[in-house]
Amino acid sequence: MCYDWGEVEESAVKVLEGEVGWLSCPLFSHPTVYNYTSSQSAGLNLFWYRILIGQDLEQPIGYSSSSQHLCKERERLWLQPAAVEDTGQYICMLRNKSSCTKIAMRLDVLPRDGATPPPLSLRGCEPPLAVALAVAPGQTKIPLQHDGALHCPDLQDALKMTDSDSAPSVTWYHRCKVYPWGNSDRVMKENSLVIHHMVERYQGLYYCTINYNRKGRSLNFTRAVNVTAIYPLSMPKDPSIIKPTKDHVYTIKPDTEVHLECRALIPYVEGPRDIGWTIDGKTVEQLSDSRFSKTNRLLKNDLEDLTVESVLVIEDFKAEDLNRELNCTAWNQRGNATRRATLTLEVSLPSVELACGLGVTVALMLVLFVIYHVFWLELLLLYRSWFGTDERYTDNKEYDVYISYARNSEEEHFVLNTLRSVLEQELGYTVCIFDRDSLPGGTITDDTLTFVARSRRLLVVLSRGYGEQGSQGLLELRAGLEGMALGGHLRVILVQYGPSRYRGVSELRRARLALALVQWKGERESGELNSRFWKRLRVELPVRREVGGGGKETRTGNKEKATYRTYESQSSNSSQAALLPPC
Prior knowledge:
CATH superfamily of the largest domain: Toll/interleukin-1 receptor homology (TIR) domain
Distance between the termini: 132 Å
CATH topology of the largest domain: Rossmann fold
Oligomer: single chain
Number of domains: 4
Mean pLDDT: 83
Radius of gyration: 48 Å
């Protein structure tokens, strides 16, 4: 009978195809139970068996032939080198004539072009590094501005198998580059790599390939060491609680699941470090109340100085839980930091009433937004009629509007029969038109500047012929813009009557970008007094307070004033009055 320990629970031993690997008999992992030397003295011999993939029977492994790549050295079975066909289950057995003990383990030989991708740091590297590592990298931490040494793992094992007349050699790689790397900060001493004056860019995986000769064959295997920079140990390394602060109070709602967050900075020092909660002096694991649990997570790793968070979860929070002592503690080998969580009950608010009030407020805001978006012109005109200031009582201007336009038949017809007619007869504004109101014999330039200066608004009718160099319209526009720039009461309004050209006329380009533009869209859309054109134009024109009988100034009164101005104009300029309609 043979006592069978079964198969080891640890993961399979992995070896890269074409590299050296070995299996250590797990029976000798507990020297107090089995020791190789004492087993040999007791007459126990070590034998190896294997069950390859696709087979069921155990096959003994022989070592007599020198060409075999499998060999036994004390408690180890060496593969020099390993092949994909070696994958399977291996059994080591200790036996003599009266007793037998065996245990099994698994070996996986990874193909070099296998499906397992290489680490990100190896992507794009040339062979032999453009492969996945079979053995997990070693870990080395070096403080910034300090020295450190890297030793290739398992080098001592290669020394045992090397021929007596040769010594193993080690080749180092970092970020796909082979040593030397062209600086004096990293140098090799014998087979080790020494880093002088550690900096952050020297972090990462370092690969070492060990080459040695055995029985005339050249063998090798690759290992890795992960180098991490840490802050110097001379810096403060005591943990500190970031959250909760000393004056922080957790607001708790009864009969709900409560989450208490604790955040801490735990600097790196060798040894264990962690964060956790205690309830009345007991950890969550020691507490018999299943309502309490915690979850920890890493938030930030700054050169191995960890910012971690622990969340204490209390299910179905009770009022008596307020009297418990809840402490969050973070610790490492240098010390610990503790902060108590202060709890208070949340004052219940009438959620239904708040929700209804909020809903009504939002609905009212939406309605007001729609009303303003649709009727903003009407609302603005209404506001101006109530609160606007009539400029006739604040300045000494004579005219409300001075109309500037291109002197041709089409624009002249629009100005005289549409703009002038509505502004004077319907809206009650005093309008000045140069060709109608100027006296004969005067200087055009001086009279134009005088009329513009005596007006509250300059209404510019933009069309194809407006603004040509040397035209009177350009003179009027320049006078209006200059009046606005000097801070007077004159404002310029642009009315787009037809297509116009701005190229070459700087005044028009600036005015088009900076001033209000009212679009005339033809007699059908803009002809009615309640159309958008006239509402938009009235917003830009001076405010008119409606006065007179019953609080309103009648249209008849407006016509009488217009007739009186016409009489004065006819008496001063009878020839022009015969050609143009009266004011």
